[in-house]
Amino acid sequence: MQALVLVGGRGTRLRPLTYETPKPALTLVDRPFLNYMTEWLGRHGVEEVILACGFLPDEMRSVLGDGEPGGPKLKYLVEEETLGTAGAIRFALDHLDERFFALNGDVLADLDLTALWKQHEETGARATLGLYKVEDSSSYGLVDIDEDGQVLQFSEKDPDRTGPGLINAGTYILEREAIAEIPPGREVSIEKEFYPSITGKGLYARELEGYWMDFGTPERYFDATWDILEGRIQTEVVTNSDGVHIAPDAEVDPNATIGPRAVIGPGVKVGPGARVNGSVLLDRSEVGANATVEASIIGPGVNIAAGDTVGDEVLGKNQVGEVINA
Ligand code: GTP
Are residues 252 and 179 part of one domain? Predict the structure, then answer.
């Protein structure tokens, strides 16, 4: 089985971390985010993952390589121009199987893809969407279905709408022949253009149970981190007795206070008297003596000087305002 994963976006909401590292290659706890996705896809029989890249493809390749041993093999396709979510799938047409999974590259989930595939085969759909029930649907697109699972309509994000709803989980099964009908070479959105164009003509969906999170904002990056550390998603991760992950080669002074809730990445140094809580220190970052870091993501190689206090910040080597590769 094959999956195409959309990883071409700029990840603007996670800047400055995403100026130099594309969102799917960002570290989440102890590995690149995309490895959680390939683990999940592998559990449902996927052997090949095509990464539809646009932004920073070389960085993507250098972080993710050919994939993890025993997991799906990674293949890279690079768009020269922004094609949008459906345009990117159309661009991959010559590489696609007759039927394949397609996913947004920022979904952390363990939804039952095998059940989705089964329904897709039973209905003879041209496209089937995985749906997920959320308590607050205001920042997501809602999908209405009938009792047979046929999609009736899509509603756009609406900040004034509150309450629970079934949302598009960015997890699809598609027929190659349906994708072939998308006009090539121009920007096309899967939600705004392609799905509305096939609504009532073979577009189905199904609610899936389990864990789901789209990790596009710092807030959700934290939620995903704590969910992994606290065992709410199926994966293996090493934590100490306080539930904190500390990379084996990190140097944490015995007089530093770490946690509750923290990730200390590889090559990180934390000095004496420093306090780190509710925070993620990414590769090779340093926190000087008596500094305090709270509710923050400290990007790779960033130094927090001795005695400084950092709270509610996302710090990268290139700070907001200095736009690299935009
Ligand atoms: P923000 O800029 O913070 O909204 O993040 P984003 O760039 O990831 O955008 P969004 O969350 O809307 O995109 C959903 C998924 O589609 C992400 O995994 C993107 O990487 C991917 N994506 C969006 N546009 C394109 C595109 O033009 N080409 C490809 N290949 N992928 C895309």
Answer: no
Q: Are residues 140 and 256 in the same domain?
A: no
Q: Final residue of a domain: which of 187, 202, 229?
A: 229
Q: List the catalytic residues.
A: 157
What distance in angstroms lies between residue 33's CA and the mean position of ligand 1's atoms? Answer: 15
Residues 153 and 274 in one domain: no
207-263: pLDDT as tens digits: 999 999 998 899 999 999 999 999 998 888 999 988 899 999 999 999 999 989 999
Q: Is the pLDDT reported for residue 323 higher than 60? A: no
DSSP of 183-212: PTTS---IIIIIHHHHTTTTEEEEE--S-E
Report whether residue 67 contacts ligand 1, using a CB cutoff of 6 Å: no
pLDDT band, very low/low/confident/very high, at 139 (cuts 50, 70, 90): confident
Residues 178-213: tens digit of each pLDDT: 999 999 989 999 999 999 999 999 999 999 999 999
Of 196, 229, 262, the position where a domain reaches its end is: 229
In short, whether 83's Cβ falls inside 6 Å of ligand 1 is yes
269: CA distance to ligand 1 center in Å? Answer: 33
Number of domains in the chain: 2
Distance CA 46, CA 100 (A): 9
pLDDT (average), residues 126-139: 93
The answer to whether 178 and 96 are in contact (CB under 8 A) is no
**Distant-in-sequence, close-in-space partners of 176: CB < 8 Å, separation ≥ 6:** 93, 96, 97, 98, 99, 100
Q: Given the structure tokens 């904002």, which residue do they identify?
A: 217
If asked whether residues 208 and 251 sit together in one domain, one would say: no
Model pTM? 0.92
Q: Please say whether the beta carbons of 285 and 298 come within 8 A.
A: yes
| CATH number of the domain encompassing residue 211 | 3.90.550.10
Give the structural domain span for 304: 245-315
